[in-house]
Fold this protein.
Amino acid sequence: MKRLLRSWGMQVQTFASGGEFLLALERSPDADCAVIDVQMPGMTGLEVQAHLNDAGLDVPVIFMTAHETERVEEQALRAGAVGFLRKPFTDEALVGLIRNALQRRRKPFVGETRHGQRRKNREEPSHEDE
């Protein structure tokens, strides 16, 4: 998958588990999109998604699975997933979902970080200057 996405011009990082991914996000919360398998070692993809939501991280999530049930898909989408793929899927289906997720991703506006936190503009007057 890493080679496939890089061949489409995407920067990719892979992780052995959901926990490893969450630790990496704690150090650098700059993921533009996450493609997560429902079944993973340590914690499920739904648990990873719950951690992202609880932390308030704005990372679009696309799920993939070979063991899907409608209940799992409904739960993932209800929790904010932007896509759900059943294995086997085509390269174009995956890349299309990722591109859609990246296009829909909210861009920050001046004075706001990517995760919605307010940052002080150096040129903004402080209350002491009034």
Q: What stands out?
A: Confidence is low (pLDDT under 50) at residues 109-130. The longest helix spans residues 91-104.
